[in-house]
Amino acid sequence: MSDISGPQVGPGAAEPPGSVAVLTTDSGVRLVLSGQVDAGMNTELVEAVHEATRIGLPVDVDTRTVTFMDSTVIALMAHMVNRLAHPVRFIEPPEVVRFLLDLTHIDEVVDVVDEEEVSSEPRSSSD
């Protein structure tokens, strides 16, 4: 009998773990979410949202590589949107994120933009 080990590949493979990063420029903040973003990342997410709101500049939420998002994360995004004086943009959200934005009606208070509408840096506060 042989022992097969190593990373699992194919339909049964595990989703990539989630990550969050806050990138800043003089003109804005980009909150980058990727992989499985869920309640297990609560501490990281709260810190990132706190930092993004503390800076006080326009925020772009880059969710292009999110594979899963749960309701705790979308609730935190709603909290952030309500605390900011500037509009929030979601950059090319995948279907799982678009579904949650629609379900929670957050899509009515944020801008959802395609990749070609976004420069390599966050937008200025005059956008």
From TrEMBL:
Protein name per its UniProtKB record: MlaB-like STAS domain-containing protein
Biological source species: Georgenia halophila
Residue ranges of every copy of the MlaB-like STAS domain listed in the record: 31-105
Domain of life: Bacteria
Matching InterPro entries: MlaB-like_STAS, STAS_dom_sf
UniProt cross-references to Pfam families, sorted A to Z: STAS_2
